Structure formats: structure tokens, C-alpha cells
Amino acid sequence: MRHSLRRAVFLSALLSTQTLSVAIAEPQDSPAEQNARALWHENIAIGYQALATSAQALSDTATLYCDAPSEHTRQSLESQWREAFSNWQAVRFVDFGPIELDSRAWQLQFWPDPKNLVGTKARQLLSADAPINRQRVTDSGVAAEGFPMLEYLLFDAPFNQTEQALPGDRSCALLKTTATVVKDNATDLSADWQALAEHYQATDSYTATTVRSAMTALDILVQKRLGEPMGLGSSQRRLVYAGDAWRSGQSLAAAEASLLGLQRYFLPGLIRELEYADQRGIANDLTDQFQATLARFDALPDDLASVLEDDQRYARLQNLYISMQQLEQTLTLQAAVALGIRQGFNSSDGD
Fold this sequence. Notes:
Elements: H1 2-24, H2 36-67, H3 71-91, H4 104-108, H5 117-127, H6 134-139, H7 147-155, H8 169-195, H9 197-202, H10 205-227, H11 251-276, H12 280-296, H13 305-308, H14 311-338
Helix pairs in contact: 1-2, 1-3, 2-3, 2-8, 2-11, 3-11, 7-8, 10-11, 10-14, 11-12, 12-14
């Protein structure tokens, strides 16, 4: 499963590279090719296009399943959700630019959700008499619009034992409508990022902004997405529900996809910046740490529940946590400092 996830993420990125080649290609001797922001913009564009492509496939597969429900179409739908969700995780570190418009990040993934608002919204929509359409879903707020709502419909165990479960008429209406909203948001996000190219590459402050976004993403990954479920936060208890994607058993798979996204879409531009600053040693350290940290995922399953319940697996998770902490420290205390960048206010943190 672990290696198939990596193949899914990078295959999507490869296909997206082909579709983007006309839009982002520049002459090899172009000055922009020597600029880290040009590389960041190009790589993030690849990630966003991978998200848009897989979100389109998810929407199509949802329609196919509801039109012809079967074990095969259900498995295809669940697999397509995992691929699109992984592609979202890979670009989740970008917290500036078009993703800020209309709270798009929250629309794609409402998290954290300590009060189970996603489940509440799903039950309200499914139990009401009014038809389920786009207006009803968007009026219900961001908890009803993104990947977690689709995850609830597909993977929530108690819900799937009820009469409202898929492929019921109302649950299928909610599934298809939400999948369409996700697809449209991903498509618009990709197009808007492309439109930002000239401004992004010409604006010096975006260098610090991009580095800070990666710093924030790593901090959230360490403290919130791993630390809280591990019992290292305020609760002092191991809580699988504190992680994201726990219903689908994809909490660790999602964390790996986020780290892979940072490695693929962020690290190359950062290395270029560090080389300009004559900090090749730090660049090499980061490259090695990314690779070593990603390798630790291979000893763990995709889900958190089985890890938190098993002390031997939990010890491996602790090693991963320490490795991520060290990576975060190298980025924040060495790379960013060498580039004269300080961590700013974390606007992505809802606390």
C-alpha cells in the first residue's frame, strides 16, 4: 500500500507535467530558469494540476458508481478518493495565493473537526426533505464541501450500516454534488495559480512567503497531525480521532503524501536558494533528511489506529516523529535563518 501510494502521487504528477509543458515551459537560457520562484511556481503548478485531474476523475467515478452501483465501481470510487486526497495533501503546504480565496483550503478539507461537524452536516442534509443540490451543500458551509464529507459517505462505519448509506438516492446526490464542488474548486485553483505566474515570479517577498508556508506545514504535521493523535498534545492521550482521514484509515498515508509533496514541489526551489546563498551543506542535509524521514513510513501502515494500539508500532511512530522534528528544525533554524527568513504568524492554525 505504501509504495502504491507513492506511485499514485508521482504518476499523477508526471501526467500533469505533460499537460502543463506548453503552459510553463521556458527557454533553457531564460533568466527565470535560474530563479527559485520560477521553479517553485512550476512545481506547484504541477501539483495543482495533478489535484485537478484526479478530482475530475473522482467526480466522474462518483457518477459512474451511482449510475451503476457494484462492488467494482465502489472499489474504483474509494481508490479514486484516496488518489485525489493524496494529491491534495501534496500541495496542502501552500497557504498563500489563490488557495486563500473564499477559504478554499477549508472547502477542500475541513480539519481539525473535534466536534464532528462533518458528520453532523451529513446527517442534516440526508435527513431533510429538501432536494440535495449544489446550493444546499454550499449553504451548509465548508464542512459539507470537501474531501472529509466524501470520506464520511464512503468510509464511516456506523453510517454505512444505516438505510441512508450509499448507494441510496440522497446519499448519492450528496456524494455527486460534493465531488463536483471539489472538482470545480481544484480546477479553479489550478487555473488561478497559473494566472499568478508573472506576479509571483516578479515579487521578491514571495520567496519568504513560500519558505514560511513550508515551515508552517511541517509544524502542523509534527504538532497537530502526528503529535496530537500520539498523545503529545494537551490531552496526553492517544486519540486516533485527532488525526485527519481517520475514517478511511489514511492518516499516516496522508502525512506521507504531504511530506512527499514538500520534497517534490518545495525542496528543489529551496535548494536553489541555498546554493545561491552558498549554503550547499544545509541543502545536502535537507535532502538527506527528507529521504530518511520518508523511509520511516515504510515500516508503518497507512492508518493510525493500529499503530496507537500496538506498542511496537508506536515506537516506530515515535522514531518517525523525532525524524520529522529534526527535519523541521533544519528547515526553520538553519535553512530559513541562512536565508534571513523568520517564521511569521501561523494563519493556518485555528487555535
